[in-house]
Amino acid sequence: MRAIGDRVALLVLMLLSAGAPSCAGAERVTIPLIADGKPEATDRAVTGYLFRPSGPGRFPAVILMHGCDGVNWHIPGRGGWSLLEEYADRFVGLGYAALVLDSFEPRGVEQACNRPLTVSPERRAWDALSAARYLIGRGFVDPDRLVIEGHSHGGVVVLVAMEQGRSHLPEHFAAGIAWYPGCTWTKGGVTGPILILIGEADEWTRADACRRFADRVVAGGQGNDIVLKTYPGAGHAFDAQGSPRIVAGHPITPDPKAAADAWTQIVKFLRRHIGT
């Protein structure tokens, strides 16, 4: 009987270990969703992977929103987790706490490519605001230096989370970084500065749509709040890792030169608007 019990205990330990990402230094956390105004009554919590610098803080912080392929750190061949982990490490190197937010796995969703409303940007924006409240409550984050960063579907979340009139909550983002977002989801202005990074050859999310979005914001008197950086010849997910491939019928061709410049733009943008 004791041997059976030992095997059961070992199995439980293995299952628990499988629930944590295979990276050193990330703390897996459960983030309760803010109940007031939550768009889906069945939503309770989402999962986050927290990276932080040493020391007590208070640190600036960035919340990283994955693309339509999800985090999927445990699925071979998926690039989502490794890319997000790399950016989280980079932000920590700049002195930021970094929280990779998983909107899909807690809802039983593997991916939403070509099905963006499976978990809508509006629901994910609420996830991000809930994560902001969670980080502030931990006590080591500066509530006035919160940044939201997202890729593709997550880039749309950035625009939605920072749209004027979208949220009545006290939590807010001091700046947003949107990698190749769909720029047709929002109609209002923005609540803070946003950096948009997109390829001119992107046929999944269009650079022209982002130009129109930026022009509309400028026309509304917020011209200093939008920085649009486009890359000639670069396609969707130009900062992706690995070899060229097709995702949901769309070509993904990594462009290391454009990706390196985009990170330079991010550092400049953060120094200007966050101060570090």
Structure description:
The protein is of the alpha/beta class and 276 residues long. The chain has a single domain (27-273), classed as 3-Layer(aba) Sandwich (Rossmann fold). 32% of the residues lie in helices and 22% in strands. It is built from six helices and ten strands, in the order H-E-E-E-H-E-H-E-H-E-E-H-E-E-E-H. It has helices at 2-18, 80-93, 121-138, 153-161, 207-219, 256-273, and strands at 27-32, 45-51, 59-65, 97-102, 141-151, 175-179, 194-199, 226-231, 245-247, 250-252. The strands form two sheets. It has an eight-stranded mixed β-sheet with strand order 1-2-4-3-5-6-7-8, with helices on both faces. The protein has a two-stranded antiparallel sheet with strand order 9-10. Strand 7, helix 5 (207-219) and strand 8 (226-231) form a beta-alpha-beta unit. The protein is globular. The termini are far apart. Residues 1-23 have low confidence and may be disordered.
Question: What is the CATH topology assignment?
Answer: Rossmann fold
Structural class: alpha/beta
CATH classification class:
Alpha Beta
Strand arrangement in the largest pleated sheet: 1-2-4-3-5-6-7-8
Biggest sheet features: 8 strands, mixed
Order of helix and strand elements from N to C terminus: HEEEHEHEHEEHEEEH
- Give the terminus-to-terminus CA distance: 59 Å
Number of helices: 6
Q: Please tell me the total number of domains.
A: 1
Reported CATH architecture? 3-Layer(aba) Sandwich
| Number of strand segments | 10
Low-confidence stretches: 1-23
Strand content: 15-25%
**Measured on Cα atoms, how large is the radius of gyration?**
19 Å
Shape designation: globular
Q: How helical, in percent, are the residues?
A: 25-40%
Mean pLDDT: 87
